TrEMBL record, chains A, B:
Residues binding Zn(2+): 186, 249, 266
Chain ranges passing through the membrane: none
UniProt GO MF annotations: 3-dehydroquinate synthase activity; metal ion binding; nucleotide binding
Protein name: 3-dehydroquinate synthase
Keyword DNA-binding part of the UniProt annotation: no
Biological process (GO), any one: aromatic amino acid family biosynthetic process
PANTHER family: 3-DEHYDROQUINATE SYNTHASE (PTHR43622), 3-DEHYDROQUINATE SYNTHASE, CHLOROPLASTIC (PTHR43622:SF7)
Enzyme class: lyase
Cellular component GO terms held in the UniProt record: cytoplasm
Source species: Fontibacillus phaseoli
Length: 367, 367
């Protein structure tokens, strides 16, 4: 078991990463002196509930906590105001008060949804993350929580740091393979933006990671979380540096949106986005090897790096225009300088993006 | 014109109180160096819009700001997640970005709604309050913003401090008389919880306040805001002292809820709540004059202080049980000790509340 401290002054919190942690949830709650008089709300989805909900409920109840649970439908569509309101109903009917804890048991969808509930219920209650996907190593660090608006993703949300993150890597064994690959996209991203050595490590451990080898996973997840934690500590509210975490995301979010949040998983969409960012950098003068190495690394994990031909360029550009990374109407992009290093560029033109989209339609997917 | 500084560390902000301020909105925005590149969203309601919206739009536009406006239906029902989502749609379609400002032009309903939009749009943008009711002297200080859940009031919200409050008292001239009285209930409350001299001043200036005399209003509103600001500065997130602002509110919110937010205005409901709190204090041993003086002060403003006979005791108690002031299932009440002084009491029994409800049904309304 590893413990990683996210350093945010009085909002600092620990991430516990290891096996078998869900079964010990109750004692972690006790260690953190969470109130036993107030009901705990566990939010999860209908894929995760049959696998792990009982375990968490029992552990908490054995320690003397009362729990109520809300199971939402699995998938991005649950990150909506409608489902948010339904979770609030459960919270109110369950009698949650200001000392209650809201738990997110699941992937990034449940984490973002439950986190926004925790941020807003009675104007904010304690939040505990219990991530069950690889992708959630990213989403559980940094305190960004949100639901989607039908016009744009993550548009409605808050910054709300958890009290702790209990990351039980045993749960990852039941993840569908496609989710494993997509989650690893964010791990690779952490290497690409910050740490060339870690990017190399990811490349060298591709097959062990895909095989969900426990020690390899714990190392990779801890490293990924710690890179994110360093960036976030430096800039909790995304005024500057934190934007680098958005490598691949401006385009990625647009792809998710025009695919109706069904065609691409988040990790797949940002994988294409990272390939595009590398290509834009190359078109601006970087060495072509930067693009090639990026694509090789991502496709090693079975991640997509080409633009599907059926996607309409106008639609992609239109969706990007709604994206919140357009600070004052200018196109802000995160572009790689080299593996492990990126820059925030605020003068990328729509034409450059169009060209990258077109070029990526001509590329062949390497798998 | 008076300026009052609300002291909250890096979240401190000024309240400007005086006549003709809306027509100068543009220059206040410039003084606060708010971005001219990002669209400003003005949220208001359909009573206020025909009276004051154009003035604000023009002033901002003359200073070079682009504005988009969203007019919601007047009334508490607009503090819902549905209307919240509609305002978000306007914000997105209007192209608001992270440097945009959301303005609340109106009373507490618009303030709470627009404030929660500002708190959540892209996880938080700048918020400016332009209160147009007397009650809003209360709601515009302290950063509490929220919408209602159909099961309970103000259940979904945030703490989000404004950048500034522009309080143009000329707008109060068009307020319906019933709203004037209801708004003054919160002013009186500020005297009752904190400052016996100010409570006396309110009593001595009852008719000037009701007649909306400009200087009297500016003094009373400034004093009311400053009491609230002192309490909030001490306890921004309501961990202790701030609870005293809830004098009359636990019962008041229940009355609003069972009246479907239509029978009582907020100020009327808390007026009955303040009478009830005084009665509970008397039943616990305080001198009966405490209750009599409270009732005399409130009824001087034409505010209700008796419990309407048609209201069902069980329903009132049931609604209170949903209220968020029930910390860990105990009944927390704010009770007066004397005029200008209250205490936070955590052991009020349901029976004591029932008795006060019954007794207040037998009282005669003095007007
Ligand atoms: N807040 C942030 O900083 C942040 C960062 C990155 C991504 N995100 C968000 O995260 C979301 C994506 O997260 P995700 O990829 O975890 O998606 P997800 O939560 O939808 O989980 C993916 C799928 O795996 C299932 N699942 C989860 N755990 C499982 C397990 N242990 N065994 C079997 N099945 C399991 C889920 O039911 C779902 O079907 C997106 O909404 C994205 O916007 C947020
Ligand atoms: N956030 C807080 O700290 C806080 C504190 C107290 C109350 N509140 C909230 O405030 C709300 C009540 O506020 P309110 O009493 O201002 O209600 P309101 O906003 O509904 O305004 C009352 C009525 O007056 C109309 N109106 C507003 N300004 C006018 C003007 N200048 N001329 C003519 N008509 C005008 C409105 O359209 C409305 O019909 C409640 O929702 C309550 O929960 C919040
Ligand atoms: Zn991501
Ligand atoms: Zn009030």
């Amino acid at each position: 078991m590893r413990t990683l401290q996210v350093d945010l002054g009085e909002r600092s919190y620990p991430i516990y990463i290891g096996g078998g942690l869900l079964a010990k949830a109750g004692s972690y709650f006790e260690d953190h002196q969470l109130s036993k008089k107030s009901p705990v709300l566990i939010v999860t989805d209908d894929h995760v509930a049959p696998l792990y909900l009982k375990q968490v409920e029992e552990s908490l109840e054995n320690s003397g906590y009362r729990t109520v649970s809300k199971v939402v439908k699995a998938g991005e569509k649950s990150k909506s105001l409608g489902v948010f309101e339904a979770v609030m109903t459960t919270a109110i009917e369950g009698g949650l008060d200001r000392r209650s804890v809201v738990v997110a048991l699941g992937g990034g969808v449940v984490g973002d949804l439950a986190g926004f509930v925790a941020a807003s219920y009675m104007r904010g209650v304690t939040f505990v993350q219990m991530p069950t996907t690889i992708l959630a190593h990213d989403s559980s660090v940094g305190g960004k929580v949100a639901v989607n608006h039908h016009l744009a993703k993550n548009m409605i949300g808050a910054f709300h740091q958890p009290e702790m993150v209990l990351y039980d890597v045993e749960t990852l064994q039941s993840l569908p393979e496609r989710e494993v690959r997509a989650g690893l996209a964010e791990m690779v991203k952490h290497g690409l933006i910050w740490d060339a050595e870690f990017a190399d490590w990811c490349r060298d451990h591709t097959s062990k990671l895909l095989a969900l080898d426990a020690d390899t996973l714990v190392y990779g997840l801890t490293k990924g979380c710690s890179i994110k934690a360093q960036v976030v500590s430096d800039d909790e509210r995304e005024l500057g540096l934190r934007a680098i975490l958005n490598l691949g995301h401006t385009l990625g979010h647009a792809l998710e949106a025009i695919g109706g949040y069904g065609e691409f998983l988040h990790g797949e969409a940002i994988s294409i986005g990272m390939a595009a960012a590398a290509l834009i950098a190359v078109n601006r003068g970087a060495d072509r090897s930067l693009y090639e190495e990026t694509v090789a690394l991502l496709s090693g994990f079975g991640l997509p790096t080409v633009m599907p031909k059926h996607l309409d360029e106008e639609q992609i550009i239109g969706a990007m225009m709604h994206d919140k990374k357009f600070k004052e109407q200018k196109l802000v992009f995160i572009l790689p300088l080299s593996i492990g290093k990126v820059e925030i560029v605020s003068d990328v033109t729509v034409e450059e993006v169009r060209r990258a989209i077109r070029d990526l339609k001509e590329e062949e997917q390497h798998v």
